[in-house]
Amino acid sequence: MFLNIDKQNRESVALVDNDGRRVTYGELADRMGELGARVEPRSVIFNLCRNTAGAMAGYLGFIDRGAVPLNLSDKIDRALLQTMLDTYRPAWLWVPEEEAAGFGGEVVCRLWDYALVRTGNPLYPLHEDLQFLMATSGSTGSPKLVRYKKGNLEANAKNVAIAFGWTQAERPLCDLGMQYTMGLNVINTHLFVGATVLLTTYNIMSAGFWQYMKEERATNFTGVPFSYDLFYRLRFERMDLPDLKTLSQGGGKLTSARFTQLANYAARTGRRFIASFGTTETAARMACLPAALALEKVGSIGRAIPEGELFLVDDKGSPEDAPAAEGELCYRGPNVTMGYAYTKEDLQRGDDCRGEYHTGDLARRDADGCYYITGRLSRFLKLLSYRISLDQSERLIQQAFDIECACSGTDERMNIYLTDGSKADQVVDFIAKKTGLHRSLFRVFAVPEILRNDTGKIQYRKMDARYAGAEK
Fold first, then answer.
1. Which CATH number is 86's domain given?
2. Fewer CB within 10 Å, N side or C side of the chain?
3. Do 104 and 161 have their domain in common?
4. Average pLDDT over residues 404-411
5. Residue 138: is its pLDDT beyond 80?
6. Residues 159 and 300 in one domain
């Protein structure tokens, strides 16, 4: 059975959600089988996810059946959802029960808070190795999907569990959505070892989140950088969280200051802080930094997970073989997916990647073999012929002024978005001095908030359209 669900102790609790459901491994295996029997193998199924036992049972049961689910947020923009429906023509929808009637199809069955809807779309050919689909974090507004082959998810679950030392005693609190690669990885790795996954739909800023964490005795938490920004706003270091043993980070780069704060907190309280790095194209995590190195290697993503290999290439694609080097970060391993899909016909394609993925991230490797992300190949401006990193500019401003900011722009001007307009002149003077460029090349916009998607990543295009575009 998928993720070895049937090999776990049937009486052990697999899933808990904040709607009060507690599902044992035995019951989960049974429900997976029942749901799977309702759908055809090799059918495409849209799963509109929320972090509940119902959504989870569908995802697991459909894959186990040999169908091909696509995990999407239940809060997805309806115009985008319609584009996806028109593009991929799924035979089935697995949706929150209260939304089922709105899709107009036949409701075939219900389980907990979810319903299975037959769309009436005919089946069509899929590649025999295709197992799962997921939208990339950068493809909002586009039907672009990542195609997972059989073995990707389970290889990653096994090797991340080894790298992190997870056992069945763990109780991870998962607030990241299961339509997001890092959230799904937290779930998969813990189910693979027979742990109890604590699913929550509570917002970090709500009292319910922290009450749920304490009542359910969460032992570990994985957050994106924005998650930890919220933690520190709430002064979580002062909270009494006796069961919490591990804090993990993924989904973007922490500032050096935040990284150091978390590493110090873990060292001071006898906990672990583990930084990691992954992408949708590699079934989530491909590297992590051992907790013992957190203070020594501030900002590092560490080394490759078991069965994986990290390496660097130069701008011509040739390997950077020196022990310490810089270049584009690349990865080989059994969790590398098959490539992308833009149409339903692409779901017949074979493996375009062949086990190797070029991330588009710039990174350096130190003499100890630990890697550090330094920026994106696409996140550079060329101001007066000088190459300027937008990612580095953001980090410099955040660390110098302790302020939320976002940097974007063109080769004519850098746009700097700040949530505190009183610091505009100081920021312009600071970044002009750091880059050695005239202050007229930088324009600050005071904004009420930095726009982010549901995983906390900054939406630069929306920022430019809303604020920089408004001045034209």
1. 3.40.50.980
2. C
3. no
4. 91
5. no
6. yes
Same domain, 405 and 371: no
354: left (phi over 0), alpha (psi -120 to 50) or beta: left
Task: Count Cβ atoms within 10 A of the Cβ of residue 453 and give its class: 0-12 exposed, 13-18 middle, 19 or more buried.
Answer: middle
SS3 assignment for the chain:
CHHHHHHCCCCCEEEEECCCCEEEHHHHHHHHHHHHCCCCCCCEEEEEECCCHHHHHHHHHHHHHCCEEEEEECCCCHHHHHHHHHHHCCCEEEEEHHHHHHHCCEEEEEECCEEEEECCCCCCCCCCCEEEEEECCCCCCCCCEEEEECCHHHHHHHHHHHHHCCCCCCCEEECCCCCCHHHHHHHHHHHHCCCCEEECCCCCCCHHHHHHHHHCCCCEEEECHHHHHHHHHCCHHHCCCCCCCEEEECCCCCCHHHHHHHHHHHHHHCCEEEEEEEEHHHCEEEEECCHHHCCCCCCCCEEECCCCEEEEECCCCCECCCCCEEEEEEEECCCCCCEEECCHHHHHCCCCCCCEEEEEEEEEECCCCCEEEEEECCCEEEECCEEEEHHHHHHHHHHHHCCCEEEEECCCCEEEEECCHHHHHHHHHHHHHHHCCCHHHEEEEECCCCCECCCCCECHHHHHHHHHHHHC
398: domain CATH number is: 3.30.300.30
Co-location of 263 and 296 in the same domain: yes
Our count of domains for the chain comes to 3
Distance between terminal CA atoms of the chain?
57
| pLDDT at 470 (0 to 100) | 57
Per-residue model confidence (pLDDT) at position 192: 98
Same domain, 302 and 156: yes
Please tell me the predicted confidence (pLDDT) of residue 252.
81
Based on the domain organization, do 252 and 332 belong to the same domain?
A: yes
The confidence band for 195, taking pLDDT boundaries of 50, 70 and 90, is very high
Per-residue tokens: 323: 């022990």
Q: Is there a single domain that holds both residue 365 and residue 395?
A: no
Domain boundary among 123, 144, 165: 123
187 and 65 in a common domain = no
Domain that holds residue 71: 23-123
Question: Rounded mean pLDDT of the chain?
Answer: 94
Q: Does residue 12 lie within any of the structural domains?
A: no
Whole-number percent of the chain with pLDDT over 90: 83
Q: Using the predicted structure, report yes or no on whether residue 245 has a pLDDT greater than 50.
A: yes
CATH classification of the domain holding 328? 3.40.50.12780
Q: What is the pLDDT of residue 382?
A: 80
